[in-house]
Structure to design on (351 residues):
């Protein structure tokens, strides 16, 4: 593993703060998606896409994989709330693992 | 990293290298003779160490810029395609790294607006996971290579170094005088650039050239930059030597 420079450490902290907000947002969308499901799924997809790229760029491979898995899931045909909940919860666990929550 | 106590960011370039790569031909083989899409043809200078990064995500942009800087490159970052395109008219880096998925003008839109095949600078696009269709579109629009955006920054630096070596090895070899082949490069100049070249060789100043040709001094400077880039020259003195060696008749 390469040591991170102070500049990269600062960026990792920014990523952490943003990702924890994303985690909250994903869980909120999951709970409130009955109102406008398509919009909620679209927002989830954007969050997952951004997180897959940003986590991967910083070397958080497992977190990136989980975010990409959610993005893939959301790009497929709707399979009901239960599988979606499982995907989001997997991602939340990966976020906690990455950032020590 | 003091703000994290869980999964540590690790960089293992070999683990995530994609095996599929679409390099159909080196950019030097695709260099055009004319301007396209209203953009002047700029060629990456052989000795340039500057990287342009276009990505709307400030965290990713910052990480890439930091890693490239730490690896010895100079970096200019752009938050969107428009701000990059504004500079692309006058500056050519060694390599452009371009995110595909951006709000507003996408990376594909930027490639199209740029006329990437004519740009003369290798463009490496960052794509989503397994998004081969988009990668192929990017290659068809003139991109040189594509990388999954989920690669660690270190792996992206390594890949770009590799791409730059491929580009360098595809360039015409300098002759014994250490200058690039002259005849074919002079052939790349537009009629207006030849006009400006004549003024350069006559030691005319930018202002004098502008008055003589009836164009603005800024336009003269842009033409001068294009002439140097196309001839692979580092200075006006280089230009003079290259032209003399080519026995170019004014």
């Amino acid at each position: 593993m390469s040591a991170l420079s102070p500049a990269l450490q600062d960026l990792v902290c920014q990523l952490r703060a943003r990702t924890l907000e994303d985690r909250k947002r994903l869980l909120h969308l999951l709970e409130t998606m009955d109102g406008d499901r398509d919009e909620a799924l679209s927002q989830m997809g954007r969050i997952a896409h951004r997180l897959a790229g940003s986590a991967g760029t910083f070397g958080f491979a497992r977190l990136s994989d989980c975010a990409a898995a959610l993005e893939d899931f959301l790009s497929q045909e709707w399979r009901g709330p239960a599988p979606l909940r499982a995907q989001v919860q997997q991602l939340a666990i990966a976020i906690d693992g990455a950032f020590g929550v | 990293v003091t703000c994290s106590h869980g999964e540590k960011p690790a960089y293992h370039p070999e683990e995530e290298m994609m095996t599929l790569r679409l390099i159909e031909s080196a950019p030097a083989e695709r260099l055009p003779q004319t301007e396209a899409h209203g953009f002047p043809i700029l060629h990456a200078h052989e000795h340039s160490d500057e990287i342009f990064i276009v990505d709307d995500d400030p965290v990713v942009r910052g990480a890439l810029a930091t890693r490239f800087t730490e690896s010895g490159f100079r970096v200019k970052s752009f938050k969107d395609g428009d701000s990059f395109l504004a500079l692309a008219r006058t500056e050519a880096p060694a390599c452009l790294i371009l995110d595909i998925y951006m709000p507003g003008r996408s990376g594909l839109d930027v490639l199209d607006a740029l006329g990437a095949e004519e740009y003369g600078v290798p463009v490496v696009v960052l794509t989503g996971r397994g998004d081969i269709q988009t990668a192929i579109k990017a290659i068809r629009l003139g991109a040189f290579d594509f990388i999954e955006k989920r690669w660690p920054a270190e792996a992206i630096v390594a890949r770009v170094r590799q791409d730059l070596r491929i580009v360098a090895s595809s360039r015409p070899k300098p002759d014994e005088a250490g200058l690039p082949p002259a005849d074919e490069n002079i052939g790349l100049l537009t009629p207006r650039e030849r006009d400006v070249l004549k003024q350069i060789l006559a030691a005319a100043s930018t202002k004098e050239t502008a008055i003589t040709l009836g164009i603005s001094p800024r336009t003269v400077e842009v033409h001068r930059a294009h002439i140097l880039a196309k001839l692979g020259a580092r200075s006006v003195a280089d230009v003079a030597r290259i032209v003399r060696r080519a026995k170019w008749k004014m």
Summary: The interface with chain B takes residues 1-2, 4-5, 7-9, 11-18, 49-50, 52-64, 68, 71-72, 94, 96-101 of chain A (CB under 8 Å). Residues 59 and 101 of chain A are 18 Å apart (CA to CA). The helical segments of chain A are 6-32, 37-57, 61-75, 81-99.
